[in-house]
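[SOLVED] Predicted holo structure with magnesium ion

Edit: marking solved, answer below. Original request kept for reference. I posted the sequence and ligand SMILES and asked for the 3D complex as structure tokens.
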Amino acid sequence: MRALSIQNLTKIYANGTEALKGIDFNVESGDFYALLGPNGAGKTTAIGIMTSLVNKTSGTVEIFGHDIDTDLESAKACIGLVPQELNMNLFDSVLNIVVNQAGYYGIDRRTALQRAEKYLSELRLWDRKDDSARNLSGGMKRRLMIARALIHEPKLLILDEPTAGVDIEIRRSMWDFLRRTNEAGTTIILTTHYLEEAENLCRHVAIIDEGRIIEDAKMSEVLRKLQREIFVLSLRDPLTKAPTLPGFETSLRNDGELEVVLDAKDDLNSLFDVLTRAGISVVSLRNKANRLEELFMGLVEGKHQVSGGQGD
Ligand SMILES: Nc1ncnc2c1ncn2[C@@H]1O[C@H](COP(=O)(O)OP(=O)(O)O)[C@@H](O)[C@H]1O
Ligand SMILES: [Mg+2]
């Protein structure tokens, strides 16, 4: 069963901003899925639509088979959301914030209290249960929102930039908690602009940029692509078909230039050895830059921010 299925989803805000330009993606039940992209890419908009906080312009969204247009209540019951912006009553106590949320789902108070103790303990907030939320640190507030999102034990947990602004130690303990939650069977989707976060947690990644999905693959495949570089070679004598160069992936472009893929273990010397042996003479060489690579570079820069613990 699919946890989430999105087809041709678009969103144009009232001011004319085209935040989503027709996105498709599917999340399998049990998966740990990253929606990775720079600021302004459309991540929060996509999550807003999944959780019915934002009206879509067109397209379909199904949560565990429930279409949000025809079966919204069932769809909503499957989802726990940790939004990007804190949206709780900061004057309320930690325990009340979690237990009151249970009321919206018709959970009896006894069960709510049991679960609140379980999740607040796991998130190391139980000893703060009587404090008012405004006295918590940023990382604690974020963990409180996770406890609140789990109170009805949703099948799908959605977190929008859960570790933004959280220091590195807390970040790692949140990662551990999310990993355990996923292992216990909860499907998780999170958005992040940190490649490292997606890399540490997620098995599948969709990369979103300017309202379009530009990559959607297993995390391991995307990482492999990250290590590859594509060179474009101009040749002295045009070829009619791509040559076989042992150890290298090649393709011939329409303009007669040759593209060669190098991965992390290859070096340019061995490429030139192989070219020389094949009798191919190269006039010039350049690195092929494309949007995906540029974006990866930006996301890898984000990685350093994570390592240094200075998230935004
Ligand atoms: N309520 C809104 N009204 C108009 N434009 C919006 C609104 N919310 C977001 N946007 C715009 O939509 C685009 C996508 O934003 P968002 O979904 O928040 O991206 P992300 O979460 O990836 O940073 C951005 O250009 C943003 O400025
Ligand atoms: Mg956002």
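OP edit: The longest strand covers residues 2-12. Thanks to everyone who chimed in.
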